[in-house]
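Fill in residues.
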């Protein structure tokens, strides 16, 4: 009889060999074994980047056939939390689910009454972005209050936060770091501190981005420590995005900074109680915190009396929330653990790819507008970014390279997108554009006018909707692919259009 472990090792050896032969085009761009890009084939805006290590991890975990979240998931949660420097990370099955769990956790009756989000309470968010940053606010019965977006950064106009505030109604701010560009955390944190509001950072597009501020300012906002691996000296505090708010979320869908296929995470930055609540919403709403297959870690399984249940009712079947089942599978977590080890190189590749595209298109500023990081005032090829007087800085691990077609250009954003499509260059809009103009939100306003509130004119969000697209920066883009993207845009823009 063949030794089972020897058989497993032979299966994994063949798995590695299969992956090397079949998946060479998905290796990191800098990998010498990467299959070269062939001119005339598609240049995706994003995609999976992996080697035989991820495939082996997935197959190995599947052979063990635990399947539901188990030892690989537990290890990934600890490793992600350690990388970010947060107290806990909870795996879920998508970034959208992460947003749903995060905002649901803030509705729990286990929270102080004054801070708990109840039906009709308000959550400030931004009009331009991805719909599942906003949809969970409506889904838990709260009212999203929309502020406008800045067309240059893609982020919320945080100068509108005060106008959006409603005493006794506003309970939280929930916004995304758009395309890997942190929003103005200093202003947002000061606002949340002033009114004792929750801050939920949608960090799905921004894993590996950092934000720094003068130490005196950071300490006034309750921060004195850097995130692990980040240091800007004794006079500044630098932290990863996703570690400044109360809760943050991640997505591990293939276009994102690391992938599990599907998957996401809810990061609990400081508060143990939020971890227990978020985990309950993720896991059917149950009150028990024992992992699947493990019983009685509290040694009181039959010693509780909650709700109107009889004393001693099984704690594993006691439910304190109207929850969900949003866990991923353990083989996904096994893939994620390998991906997490690649994250530092992925972060750097995204920064470098953005820089290559920016330098390659610098001569077309007459008709094209390029993104700036929050707090940046300009960019040039010699000195890089210049910064405002706030003392705050952002370091972006870009999710995408944002381009806007200026108003005086003799072509439209749609015409540029069509030209990129014709040359098989992947491009996307800035997600939903102005979400208020999406059919779902138009219908919501018609059905229930009080279901949302809008602060001022959404001119910036409309501008993003009408003029903006983005290209990829993901670490599977080779220099040849980036050069082709630049050449296609230069040929389209540079001829009769360039002034």
């Amino acid at each position: 009889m063949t030794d089972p472990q020897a058989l497993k090792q032979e299966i994994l050896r063949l798995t590695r060999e299969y992956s090397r032969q079949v998946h060479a085009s998905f290796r990191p761009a800098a990998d010498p074994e990467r299959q070269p890009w062939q001119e005339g084939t598609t240049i995706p805006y994003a995609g999976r980047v992996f080697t035989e290590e991820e495939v082996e991890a997935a197959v190995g975990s599947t052979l063990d056939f635990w399947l539901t979240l188990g030892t690989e998931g537990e290890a990934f949660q600890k490793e992600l939390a350690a990388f970010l420097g947060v107290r806990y990370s909870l795996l879920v099955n998508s970034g959208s689910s992460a947003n749903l769990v995060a905002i649901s956790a803030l509705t729990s009756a286990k929270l102080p009454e004054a801070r708990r989000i109840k039906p009709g309470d308000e959550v400030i968010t931004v009009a331009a972005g991805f719909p599942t940053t906003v949809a969970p606010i409506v889904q838990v019965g709260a009212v999203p209050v929309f502020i406008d977006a800045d067309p240059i950064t893609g982020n919320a106009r945080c100068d509108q936060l005060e106008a959006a505030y409603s005493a006794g109604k506003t309970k939280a701010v929930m916004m995304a770091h758009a395309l890997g560009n942190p929003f103005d955390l200093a202003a947002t944190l000061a606002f949340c501190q002033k009114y004792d509001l929750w801050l939920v950072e949608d960090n799905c597009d921004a894993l590996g981005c950092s934000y720094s501020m003068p130490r005196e300012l950071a300490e006034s906002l309750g921060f004195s420590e850097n995130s692990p691996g980040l240091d800007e000296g004794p006079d500044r505090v630098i932290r990863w995005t996703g570690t400044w708010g109360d809760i943050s979320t991640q997505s591990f869908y293939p276009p994102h900074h690391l992938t599990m296929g599907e998957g996401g995470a809810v990061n609990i930055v400081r508060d143990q109680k939020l971890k227990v609540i978020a985990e309950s919403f993720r896991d059917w709403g149950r009150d028990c915190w024992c992992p699947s297959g493990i019983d009685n870690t509290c040694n009181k399984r039959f010693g509780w009396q909650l709700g109107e249940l009889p004393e001693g009712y099984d704690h594993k079947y006691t439910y304190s929330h109207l929850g969900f089942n949003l866990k991923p599978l353990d083989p996904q977590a096994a893939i994620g653990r390998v991906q997490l080890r690649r994250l530092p190189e992925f972060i750097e590749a995204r920064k470098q790819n953005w820089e290559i595209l920016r330098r390659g298109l610098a001569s077309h500023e007459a008709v094209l507008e390029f993104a700036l990081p929050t707090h940046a005032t300009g960019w040039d090829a010699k000195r890089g970014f210049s910064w405002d007087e706030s003392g705050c800085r952002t370091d972006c691990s870009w999710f995408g390279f944002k381009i806007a077609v200026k108003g005086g250009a003799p072509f439209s954003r749609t015409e540029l997108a069509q030209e990129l499509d014709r040359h098989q260059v992947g491009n996307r809009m800035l997600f939903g554009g102005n979400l208020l103009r999406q059919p779902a939100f138009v219908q919501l306003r018609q059905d229930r006018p009080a279901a949302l509130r809008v602060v001022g004119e959404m001119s910036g969000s409309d501008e993003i909707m009408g003029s903006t697209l983005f290209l990829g920066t993901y670490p599977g883009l080779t220099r040849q692919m980036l050069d082709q993207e630049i050449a296609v845009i230069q040929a389209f823009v540079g001829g009769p259009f360039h002034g």
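The chain has two domains: 71-291, 342-494.
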